TrEMBL record:
CDD domains: YycH_N (cd15787)
Protein name as annotated: Regulatory protein YycH domain-containing protein
Organism listed in the record: Paenibacillus campinasensis
Annotated Regulatory protein YycH domain residues: 3-421
Residues in coiled coil: none
Length: 431
């Protein structure tokens, strides 16, 4: 009996020793080996964090139509924006019918009907939108990209209308079935009753009736090193060579891929000209591939949103816009920042651009400033684009312009005035 007990105790001690040795070698918990290959990628948590596709897909704004020509706008991070979007994501939309855009009086609907209009910038592929909203598979428009979703009710009708607008501009798809009632829409619209009032102009954009408070904020900046980006982007950084260009930028290449670094702008451009596999371009799959690529090669430092997924011939151009406090940070020539741009062919990333700089967590300073509204803003717009060009204004939204500081960056509130040709002008805040 004693011998058997000794054998059991000895066995337990040997197993315990082996387990302890395993922990020491592999440094559990954490799953990091004590010995790492010098050519291994930097793990994304040491740079930016990984992000799920669902967290990058949301509207850039919500326009609330309250009837009687009354409107307001909610932006990401607004309490009612989050509440409305959460409710809509839980509803089901099915049985779609295609209609021509020219068959509806949209100006009348906006002015007289109550509803919620969701804007998705230059568009989101339907198959991606299905990841965040309960849109039943439907061959009628699954291959489309949608830049607006509009829910509205008409007085006296027992059901609501739910429209999805194609980015091509010629068609709109109406959901024949939606588990929302006119009372549901009324409740959502009521959230906007005491919010800032906007006027729908003859040009089709919304003009705020009063000044808008925003926070001017000074933020400290962090910066990725070239070595970090090399180890993140090249399979074997040890075989890359450095080529210095005349303008001061540097190119690192492994004879296949290249990484160009603009030191003055702290901006990188990575290219991989390898021939992609044959097949058709699919914007939805390409966006998911772009998200996976960023997750694996640098990660996300801050809050981002899918801002575009433009398909042209055999490629997809994907853009992600950075936000602070619910408003986008504009990319400028003086301070390129706040965006990630990728080109893909059949799911393969052929180019990738981003800033080496990133916002750190704690602000250095904050100050409340006012963006002008009403007649003051109207006068500024006329001075900005000229009276004859007022009709060229597509939208006006709050945003931040980055400005370099000795110890970081200042995010200055502005009205971002987007013109029909895609260019952006700004109206500054009053401090």
């Amino acid at each position: 009996m004693k011998e058997r007990l000794k054998t059991i105790v000895l066995t337990v001690l040997v197993v315990s020793s082996l387990v302890q040795s395993f922990f020491l070698i592999y440094r559990l918990p954490g799953n990091d080996s004590a010995v790492q290959s010098p050519n291994a990628y930097i793990r994304t948590e040491e740079m930016g964090t990984e992000e799920k596709a669902e967290n990058l897909l949301y509207p850039d704004k919500m326009i609330v139509h309250m009837g009687e020509s009354k409107h307001t706008i909610f932006y990401p991070n607004d309490t009612f924006y989050n509440l409305i979007y959460t409710r809509l994501k839980g509803r089901t939309f099915d049985s779609f019918q295609r209609r021509m855009v020219t068959n509806m009086d949209w100006e009348k609907l906006r002015s007289e009907s109550q509803g919620i209009e969701l804007s998705f910038d230059s568009g989101v592929p339907v198959r991606l939108l299905q990841r965040v909203m309960q849109i039943r598979p439907d061959s009628t428009f699954e291959g489309e990209s949608i830049n607006r979703m509009w829910l509205y009710s008409v007085e006296g009708e027992p059901k609501i209308h739910v429209l999805f607008f194609s980015t091509k501009g010629d068609a709109v798809y109406e959901a024949g079935q939606a588990d929302l009632t006119p009372q549901d829409v009324q409740q959502l619209v009521d959230f906007g009753q005491n919010w800032m009032s906007y006027t729908l102009t003859d040009g089709g954009y919304y003009l705020p009736g009063t000044d808008m408070d925003m926070i001017r904020v000074d933020m400290p900046l962090g910066m990725y090193t070239i070595e970090q980006m090399q180890r993140s982007l090249f399979f074997d950084p040890s075989i890359t060579r450095n080529i210095r260009e005349r303008d001061g930028s540097q190119i690192y290449t492994d004879s296949k891929r290249s990484l160009q670094v603009d030191h003055a702008q702290s901006w990188i451009s990575y290219t991989d000209p390898a021939a992609p596999p044959s097949g058709e371009s699919n914007p939805g799959k390409d966006v998911l591939s772009a998200i996976d690529f960023v997750n694996q090669h640098g990660g996300w430092n801050g809050i981002f949103r899918l801002s575009r997924a433009d398909e042209s011939e055999d490629r997809t151009q994907v853009g992600f816009q950075q936000y602070y406090g619910g408003y986008p940070i504009l990319n400028t020539r003086a301070f390129p920042f706040g965006v990630m741009e990728l080109d893909l062919q059949q799911g393969t990333v052929t180019s990738y651009e981003r800033s080496l700089l990133y916002l750190q967590d704690e602000p250095l300073a904050k100050q409340v400033v006012k963006l002008p509204g009403g007649e003051k803003l109207a006068a500024s717009l006329e001075e900005l684009v000229g009276e004859a060009s007022m009709a060229s204004i597509a939208s006006i939204d709050p945003a931040y312009v980055p400005e370099s500081l000795d110890d970081g960056v200042r995010l200055k509130p502005v009205w971002a005035v987007r013109l029909e040709n895609g260019s952006i002008r700004t109206v500054a805040a009053v401090e």
